[in-house]
Amino acid sequence: MPDTIKRISLWSGPRNISTALMYSFAQRTDTQVFDEPMYAYYLTNSKADEYHPGATDIIASMEKDGEKVVNMMTTISESSVYFFKNMTHHLLDIDRSFLKHLVNVILTRDPVEMLPSFAKVIPNPSMQDVGYQLHIDLIRELKAMDLPVIVLDSKSILLNPEKALTRLCEKIGIPFQAQMLRWEKGARPEDGVWAKYWYANIHHSTKFKTYTPKSEPFPDRLKPLLAECQKCYEELLKFKM
Length: 241
Description:
Layout: E1 6-12, H1 18-26, E2 31-35, H2 39-44, H3 55-61, H4 66-75, E3 81-87, E4 103-108, H5 111-119, H6 127-130, H7 132-144, E5 150-153, H8 154-159, H9 161-172, H10 195-198, H11 200-203, H12 223-236
């Protein structure tokens, strides 16, 4: 019997309103959400544990075996819709064949806006940390497997959440639910233990914030990384939903 469960994996870079999107999907009557289930695997198998805040607690609180996480994502069956908020850089060297069992959604954001926000927590980010090239690589892998490519730009969601989410739900094959546009202020039980370092804004919100362009000068020290990211971002926009 074919699997009729929708298993949505959001492949995001950091500071891309991915947590707001997770909160939005958590409002649905048919959906269970998971917050970065591959984070401990990533920290255990990279040097990121040396500079990610709360790394020890994250590793202690989650499954560290990447294959076990993948198995959970592709077999869990208590709900009709699952939403896995993932970071693309968490994939590392996992066998990508499991992507065939997921609805893969790539979430990106203009690096002019993303990089300064990320650097407030990770002062010296690398291209590996921010995920733009990894998104391009993921698109190539999805195409090689003849899988759909769904690319969302954070700005599009903030400009018109209802329109963007309605189109996304159509692409996924689920009905849009109006309650996705609002949530209660405060933390959610699904939040990872890293929430205290990253989620202050979302915990004070009740909906997607109104888009406002950044007005602060872009930091000079991040400009070399910006140049690399912008090339990838322009390529990603060619696939934008």
